[in-house]
Amino acid sequence: MLKVLLIDDEKWVVQSLKTIVDWRSLGYEIIAEAFNGVDGYEQIKKLSPDLVLTDIRMPGMDGLELIRQGSALNRDIGFIVTSGYKEFEYARKALQYGALSYLLKPFDEEEFAAALEQFGQKHLKNKAMWQMELLNRLQDNDTPSGGHLQELMMKLGFEWDVEVGAAVAVVVGPIDVPIPTDVPYLALQIGKNVKAYIVKGDCMAALVESFDAYFPEDVAGIGISSVIYDSTQLMDAIGEANAAAHQFFVTGNRGIWHAVLSGGGVDEVIEILWKLHQTRSTTCVDELSAKIKTLIAESKFTIRNAVSLYNWVLLHVYKLEEEQLWTYQQLANRFGYVNDMMAHVESMLRTYCDRSGATASSSAPVSTFNKIVAYIDEHFREDLSLQTVSETMDVHPSYVSQLFRKEASETFLQHVTRKRMVYASKLLKETNLSVQEIAESAGYLDYFHFAKTFKKMMGQTASQYREIERGPS
């Protein structure tokens, strides 16, 4: 919903504005009202509305000055002037200061609705552009400029306050969670069904309280970061909250977790794994399973530990470096619950202990490889893994990996990534889908993973690629 602030020194006009259209059906929500320019300006600074409807002649501060000062805040706020005076000079100055429309009282319902539709389209386009630039800045390997990040957040309606800092809540679920109206926030889609809410540090307690009071049924987990005061640490805070939000994978329960989870005892897990690697003893598999169960029971095992464990086994046992997971979502989607992951890991390790590992023979039939490639071509837009392909084709993961190196002179991951990048590039050129939507459609659950991969392969961000290929709109 787009947030609307109504300002007029006559209360009956404000009441008329409330009822002239069905605001919610048009995608708008009236969040506040004011009856003079001074109070209106304070509400703008406090609430950062998306759209302000203001009269011209008001006590304290007139509408033109309100628009001038409000625009100077650089928050991408839209202004529509409502006036009973059909004077060219007022209209000219209002438009000069950044107003979108100049509507005369009494209001014409069709004209009013048309103005709202025009603003809605403009706002969505600008918001998508600023969000994309912010996401690109956040995932950039170079340390982003704090000033630039704050400027982008300001354009999106969130003012960085170094005194109270900010914190991040990451929500895993297919819905938008309700946020209290008195909590200023900035929402960023960081993955498929994963959204990050950036809020002021002194507002996080109120937000958590609202989550406790109403925990949406479709939400799997909510993670809360620590408070940060330096905006260049925002990506770290998002990572903290994202890891905490996915703790449902370990506990098996929906809930809210704060990013203070420790991973004590994991060194012992690595020690067991190395011993297993050297001895190939199934006793080590039993020892590993018992240790993980103990860590989970003591709340010392996190989603980060789960990803590290899974990747360690793939890398050191099966030499499948290209199969390693990059996101918590991949692990949660693949297994659902940590016990299912452990059953799979134990099975892989016992197989490893029982035999030296399957390898592709020099006479490996090309037909098998062609069947695998055909399957990938059909399913690369899904959350595809070497493991799932191996299970579907009823062959060992190492066999598939070696087949790709022999027949295609590239790894499994390189092949899948190349297919996804070609497809994503086509969508960027030929459709108006957002970059987040294209990332999901190309098989990426996590936006930052997609953005990093695209830039590495194409030498530019997805937004830059689209602009060059299609030209600036």
UniProtKB/TrEMBL annotation:
Annotated InterPro entries: CheY-like_superfamily, Homeodomain-like_sf, HptR, HTH_AraC, HTH_AraC-typ_CS, Sig_transdc_resp-reg_receiver
Matches recorded under Gene3D superfamilies: 3.40.50.2300, Homeodomain-like (1.10.10.60)
Key words of the record: Cytoplasm, DNA-binding, Phosphoprotein, Transcription, Transcription regulation, Two-component regulatory system
Matching SUPFAM superfamilies: CheY-like, Homeodomain-like
Domain Response regulatory per the UniProt entry, residue ranges: 3-120
Domain HTH araC/xylS-type span(s) in chain numbering: 370-468
Entry coiled-coil feature ranges: none
Subcellular location as annotated: Cytoplasm
The protein's name in its UniProt record: Response regulator
Source organism of the structure: Cohnella soli
